[in-house]
Design brief:
single chain, 292 residues, alpha+beta, Jelly Rolls, Arc Repressor Mutant, subunit A, 8-stranded mixed sheet, transcription regulation, Transcriptional regulator, AraC family, DNA-binding, HTH-like
Length: 292
C-alpha cells in the first residue's frame, strides 16, 4: 500500500518559538529536534536548510540518496529537495533555516549564492566534509549567529546575513583546491547556467542540442564539457533531472502513475515505466511501495 504524501514545511512553521523570525531560524540540533518532534520524515522545505553534525551517527537521505551521518559534516539543502534523517542515539550540532529571499535586500546580484557548488541542488554536492580548521571556523560562526538571535540587538538581521555569507565563503574556500583560475570561473558559470536551464525546461526539452543552442555552444562541446566537469554527458544530466522529478511525484500516493507520465511529458504510461525501470532499477509501482 502506498504511503502518505510527503509534507512540505515553510519557515514560519519552524520558528523555534520566535514568531518574528520569518526569514531565518538558527538553533542547536537537540533543541530543534525537541521543538519539532512531530516533523514527518521524509519531508521537504520551501527554504534553504543547513545542518552541521558535531557528534552522532545514523543516515541522512536527500532526494533519495543516502549518506552516513558523522561529525564534521555540513549538509546544504535547497528548496524543494526531499530529505529525512534516521539517527542512531543522540546527535549534536546546529541547524539553520533561511528563506529564499533572505539575501535579496543585501545583495545586488540576486544569483550570488548560486555560485557556491554546495547550493547547486545536487544531493552529493550538498554534503561537505569539513577539515578540522574549517569545522572550528564554521562552529564559531554558528555560535555567533546563536548569540545574535538571542540578544536581538539593532541590525541583528544584517549581522546574520553577514555571518551567513561568511559561512558560505569559508566553506567554499575549504572545498576549493588552489587558486581560482579564470577558466575555472568560466566553467563554473557555464555549468551553473546549463543546470539552471535544465531546471527550467526539463519537462519539455530532453535533447542536449536544445540546451546547447541556448548556451551558444555546440552539442558536442556541451557533452564533452559535462563529461569533464561531472563525469556524465549532458543527456545524462537532463535524464537524471527527469528521473528525480518522477521520484518526487511518485511520493504522492494520490496521483496515479499515468498522470505522472503525462505530467512529465512521456508519450504514454508504458514508455514512462520502461524509462523509470531502466534508470531507477525498479518499476514506478515498486519504487512507490518502498518509499520510507
Amino acid at each position: 500500500m502506498a504511503k502518505a504524501n510527503i509534507p512540505t514545511y515553510d519557515i514560519c512553521s519552524l520558528v523555534m518559538g520566535k514568531p518574528t523570525q520569518e526569514d531565518v531560524v538558527v538553533a542547536r540540533f537537540p533543541e530543534y529536534l525537541a521543538a519539532h518532534s512531530d516533523i514527518h520524515f521524509p519531508h521537504r522545505h520551501s527554504f534553504y536548510h543547513l545542518a552541521l553534525f558535531t557528534s552522532g551517527s545514523g543516515t541522512h537521505t536527500i532526494d533519495f540518496e543516502r549518506f552516513p551521518v558523522k561529525p564534521g559534516q555540513l549538509y546544504f539543502m535547497v528548496p524543494g529537495q526531499v530529505h529525512g534523517w534516521y539517527f542512531e542515539g543522540k546527535v549534536d550540532g546546529y541547524v539553520i533555516n533561511v528563506s529564499a529571499g533572505f539575501f535579496n535586500v543585501f545583495l545586488k546580484d540576486a544569483d550570488y549564492i548560486e555560485r557556491f557548488p554546495f547550493l547547486s541542488g545536487v544531493a552529493a554536492e550538498g554534503v561537505v566534509e569539513l577539515t578540522a580548521t574549517a569545522l572550528r571556523e564554521v562552529t564559531r560562526i554558528f555560535e555567533e549567529m546563536l548569540q545574535e538571535v538571542a540578544t536581538n540587538q539593532p541590525f541583528n538581521m544584517d549581522m546574520l546575513r553577514l555571518l551567513m555569507l561568511e559561512l558560505f565563503i569559508r566553506v567554499g574556500r575549504s572545498t576549493q583546491q588552489g587558486a581560482i583560475r579564470q577558466d575555472m570561473l568560466h566553467n563554473n558559470l557555464l555549468l551553473r547556467n546549463f543546470r539552471k536551464l535544465v531546471e527550467q525546461h526539463y519537462m519539455q526539452l530532453r535533447l542536449p542540442k536544445d540546451y546547447a543552442a541556448m548556451l551558444y555552444v555546440t552539442p558536442n562541446y556541451l557533452n564533452a564539457f559535462c563529461q569533464h566537469m561531472l563525469g556524465k554527458s549532458a543527456g545524462e544530466v537532463i535524464r537524471d533531472r527527469v528521473l528525480l522529478e518522477a521520484k518526487r511525484l511518485l511520493v504522492n500516493a494520490d496521483t496515479n502513475i499515468s498522470a505522472i507520465a503525462y505530467q512529465l511529458n512521456f508519450a504514454d504510461n508504458s514508455y514512462f515505466t520502461k524509462f523509470f525501470r531502466k534508470y531507477a532499477g525498479v518499476t514506478p509501482e515498486e519504487f512507490r511501495k518502498n518509499i520510507v
